Amino acid sequence: GTTLGASAAEKGRYFGAAVAAGRMGDNTYLTILNREFNSVTAENEMKWDATEPQQGRFSYTNADRIVNHARSRGMSVRGHTLLWHAQQPGWAQGMSGSALRNAAMNHVTQVASYYRGRIHSWDVVNEAFADGSGGGRRDSNLQRTGNDWIEAAFRAADAADPGAKLCYNDYNTDGINAKSTGIYNMVRDFKARGVPIDCVGFQSHLSNSVPGDYQANLQRFADLGVDVQITELDISGSNQAAVYGTVTRACLAVARCTGITVWGIRDTDSWRTGQNPLLFDGNGNKKPAYDAVLNAL
Ligand code: XIL
């Protein structure tokens, strides 16, 4: 293939980008999006603060802009994200206990129902594990409602949209480490008990290198019976092109690695300001990192 999306499709995968609704009027941006990618993730527009700014009042205008554009062009959509400790609306930040649990599960049900049939994969829960050596959960208002909040969210999402693949998504999980092993143990437990989980997302916000056991880590999750996806790839540093190639080859080497999403299009679109971690420069030109990915696909 001559584009990322077409080349990935030849290998049975998708190649996606995070998209910001506010940039879709930019012609350079839109041209690259439409030419190169066959999957999109809303960068912010499907988060809890965006979709339920007041409790029980749902707002889908910006998310729909992205979803409708994608679907009208045959791109698939990753839903990001139903529950997360960050980017919660103010009203939820101030809640706790059963009131928060009920509000959170209602949020999952409402948003997943609204988009039922239109989402390839949902990040049902994002970043619920702690960094460091403990391997346990991150403290958050959601975690304080009870350790079962994650499985409750997956069951609610499954009831609302049984056709979507339901993913757990996190960062600093790129190698075999305490955090990724904590998640691995949760997924193994979910599979053993029939909790509906279909996929694990590896954000892969990287800085100039990738752990040597990256592919082995993807493979150990796949061996639990879930798909794996690289969900927010961006890579800073002088070794950028080579690392992009390594990550792409690792995904292709794992049969259940079903797709790669980069977290933005041009360097100037990146949340990592000044780090130039993406595949296109600020003028929309392909970088060596782009060639490395296309060659690896
Ligand atoms: C980031 C967005 O890119 C920014 O625009 C926003 O200000 C903060 O969130 N992990 C995630 C993403 O799961 O949702 C985050 O996106 C980046 C880190």
Automatic annotation (TrEMBL):
All residue ranges annotated as the GH10 domain in the record: 1-296
Keyword Magnesium annotated: no
Reactions accelerated catalytically: Endohydrolysis of (1->4)-beta-D-xylosidic linkages in xylans
Keyword annotations from UniProtKB, A to Z: Carbohydrate metabolism, Glycosidase, Hydrolase, Polysaccharide degradation, Signal, Xylan degradation
Catalytic residues, chain numbering: 232
Protein EC: 3.2.1.8
Similarity-based family: Belongs to the glycosyl hydrolase 10 (cellulase F) family.
Protein name: Beta-xylanase
Species in which this protein is naturally found: Plantactinospora sonchi
